[in-house]
Amino acid sequence: MELLEAGNSLPSGPDAAKRKVCYFYDPEVGNYYYGQGHPMKPHRIRMTHSLLSHYGLLGHMSVLKPFPARDRDLCRFHADDYVSFLRSITPETQQDQLRQLKRFNVGEDCPVFDGLYSFCQTYAGGSVGGAVKLNHGLCDIAINWAGGLHHAKKCEASGFCYVNDIVLAILELLKHHDRVLYVDIDIHHGDGVEEAFYTTDRVMTVSFHKFGDYFPGTGDIRDIGYGKGKYYSLNVPLDDGIDDESYQSLFKPIIGKVMEVFKPGAVVLQCGADSLSGDRLGCFNLSIKGHAECVRYMRSFNVPLLLLGGGGYTIRNVARCWCYETGVALGVEVEDKMPPHEYFEYFGPDYTLHVAPSNMENKNSRQLLEGIRSTLLDQLSKLRHAPSVQFQERPPDTELPEADEDQEDADERWDPDSDMEVDDERKPVSNGMQSGRVKRETADAEIKDQKDQKGVAEHEDEVDRMAEDGASSKASDVISMLTEETARIKVEPDNSNKPSDPPAPVFSKY
Ligand SMILES: [Zn+2]
C-alpha cells in the first residue's frame, strides 16, 4: 500500500503543470428525460460536451465511454431489493407498484422515466470508472459530469438522485487509498455521501451548502461525524446571496487545513452548479470563475482528483461552468467568446462563457463567516493526526471496460491494466459504512438534552447488538478494509435539535 504524501502523489509527477485527464461521456446520456417541467435535465451533459468539443478541449484528454455499472456494482452500497426495483420499474408498470414506489421514494421528485435504470448504470459507471483509472495511476484527474448525484440513499431515491455514484466511487478509491476526501460545492447538503461514511475515519466529507429552510434540511455545523468518524464530517452552512469572495474566504482556509491534517490519498470534488448565480433552484451568487476557483484550488494539491457534476438547473450556465472547469483541470484558460456549435442559441444575447453575477444581497455577514470559519478550524484542530489503517488483503478492482468513444470492437474496450479476476463470492463481513439514518452527534455536548443522551446510548446498544449478531453487509469488497464497526446500523433519526425537513413542494427544493 502506497502511503503518499499530499503534494507529490500524482502519477505524472510532483510538479506536473499539466495534468493527465480522463473524461467520461456517454453520447446517450442527453436523451434521458425526467419528464415535462422537471428541472433536472440530462441534456445539460450533452450541451457541456458540445462546448468541450467546439472549444477543442476533447483533444487534450482521453475521452472514454463509461461501461455501465452492473447490479453487483450498485449493490456494493445499495440494497439488493432497491436495485432490483430500479431495474424492473417502468412508466407502464408503475401503477401496479404503488407500495414499492412509496417505499423507495420514487414517483414525484424522482420520477420513473424511460431508461431510468440504464441512466443510473451510465452515470454510476462513469464515476466508478474514473476511480479505477485514478487507482491505476492512468490519469491525474478523472471527470464525469453526469455523476455527482449526492442525495441517493442506500434504499431510497432522493432529490432527483437514484443511485449514489459518489459513494460507489469512494468505495472503489478506498481499495487503493487509506483516506479519501469528499468535497461538495453543490448548493444542497451532500447528505447521502455524508450518511454513508458518517462513522468512519477513512473518508472525510466536507459540504458547503445553503442551510436553513432548504432541502434536504441536514448539514448543521454541529454535525461532525459519529464514533470513529467523529470530526470526519464537516458542514459549512451558508445563507442566500454568497459571492465569490465570501465563499473563498471559507473554502480555502478550511480545505487547506483539511488537506494538511487529513492527508487524503485521493479527493472527490462534487461540482454541483446550482450554487451559481441565477440558478433556477438555487439562491447563491457565485460566478463561474468563483465556482471554478474550488477546482483550481483542489487541483493545486497534486493529489489524484475525481471531478463530478451534481445539481444545476439553469442549464446554459451549467454547461458554461463545467466546460470552464474542464479547462481548469487541463490547465487551459478557455476563451470567453463562444465558438459556434449546435446549442449556440441557448447562450444569447452575449454568446460568452462567463456571465456576471447579480446584485442580490449577500446575507452572509463578515461576522457570520468569521464565526463559521473559526468553529470549523477548531473542529479540525481536534484531528491532529491522519489516521492510519491496518490493511488486510486488497479487494479486487472493479473491471474497467470503458472505451474511447470512437472504438467499435467491444472486446477492445476492456482495460488490459485492470485486474480482471473478480471474486463473485460475497463475504459476510462488516464495514464502517452507515446504512440507516444515524442520530447526529453535535460538537457541543452541552447542548444535548436528556433525550439526546438517551439516543446515543440506544445507538451504541444497537451497534453492539449488530456486532454480536454478526450482521452481514453489502459492500463485500471493501468491508474488510473499512473500520471494524458494524455494518447495518439502523437507528431512527433524532431530530430533537435539528431542523425538520421542510414541507416538500415538488421541484422547489433542489
Ligand atoms: Zn443541488
Automatic annotation (TrEMBL):
GO (cellular component) term, any one: histone deacetylase complex
Residues binding substrate: 109, 159, 313
Biased composition (Basic and acidic residues): 438-468, 485-495
Source organism superkingdom: Eukaryota
Histone deacetylase domain sequence ranges: 38-326
Catalyzed reaction equations: N(6)-acetyl-L-lysyl-[histone] + H2O = L-lysyl-[histone] + acetate
Ranges where the record places region Disordered: 386-510
Family: Belongs to the histone deacetylase family. HD Type 1 subfamily.
The EC number(s) this enzyme carries: 3.5.1.98
Pro residues biased stretches: 500-510
Keyword Transcription: yes
Residues at which a divalent metal cation binds: 186, 188, 274
Keyword Nucleus set for record: yes
Name recorded for this polypeptide: Histone deacetylase
GO biological process: epigenetic regulation of gene expression
Transmembrane segments: none
Main localisation: nucleus
Biased composition, class Acidic residues, residue ranges: 399-423
